[in-house]
Amino acid sequence: MAPICVALIGLSSSSPSWLSLAHLPYFLSAKGQQKFQIVALQNSSHSAAEAAIKKYNFDPTVVKAYGSPEELAKDEDVDLVVVGTRVDVHYGNMKGVLEGWKATGKTTGKGVYSEWPLASNLQQVEELVALAKETGVKTVVGTQGWASPVVIKVEEVLKRGRVGKVLSSEVRLSGLTAEREAVQEKTEYFTRREVGGNLWSIGGGHLIDLLQSSLGELTNVKSHFHIQRPLVPLKDSATGTVTRTVTSNTPDLLYVVGSLPASDTVQQNASLHLRMRRGPPFPGEPAFVWTLTGERGEIRVTSPESVSIFLGAGDVKIEVHDYQTDKVEEVEWKWQEWQEDLPAPARNVGSIYEGVWEAWTEGIASKEGGEKRYNDWEVAGRRHELVERLLVDNGF
What we know:
Strand order of the largest sheet: 9-12-13-7-14-15-16-17
Number of strands: 17
Largest sheet: 8 strands, mixed
Strand content: 25-35%
């Protein structure tokens, strides 16, 4: 089977990016190279794409450089376009590619993988989802937390009935930025709702997807969002000095409560409670705590890192409390051998690419169709609808 030919949009030559940290290591691994081949890079200009080709030692006779999505769309060798730019240019890049393919009528076998969030606002998301459906291209969104072996192990514990059906679940997360008040200058956009990348849209979106993938779609959702620190100092990442102070219009404290549907592992109307807070946790407390309270026991997942499950980085512990024996047992989990050879951020992302390969070349169903392999844009659209609705409900 020939490899899937990939074009990357947003692989920078000047600074590390999510593409270079989480996607590229998989593509360059032995496992990745058996299934995917990078054949094009697109950046903000042709020269920027050429600089990235040189930076990462790609063969310029194999990897072509492009300066626009319209130009990239004309490359008939590209099967899969992967978009890993900042979220506020997702829409323009993906729309350009999709409309370019539509104009040529050559959409068969084409696909787009977008990092999360899909776009800056719900209107853009809905337009992209509709355009992808119209053209018939395959779609993937980078919500990879549910593919973590930690989450898979938790689901195994539930399916084996060790704690009975889930009666309630609670998540407490502190972090996403290193400090309570300041953020780095390069992530200033976290403070601007219109950009579309912030504590709630990024961290909250990933977490909501993970929880709903594991426990079911939320209903009766209520929330309270708050800006605790509207004035945010920005720091130079090299010197640590404050360069300026901006006013944030994005929430930094979030509470979400909802009801879960009945399933083999969840009681009808079981409660789900989520609390997210920007900044470090109380000293000595884990930054991430996820509890699943069941009929016969309780599961607790903890990590000193707030985004360990999404990113694959940091220590994570799973414990089960058996009510009858009153004993607590740590449950072992581990990465697959091929994942251990990758840097931490690439491990869950690599699982998504494995799912893409299987679904596209071997006919295995996508995540929503049965076996959990990856989320498509229709799933992303539902997640975005909830994320946006709660922001609006709270006056943002």
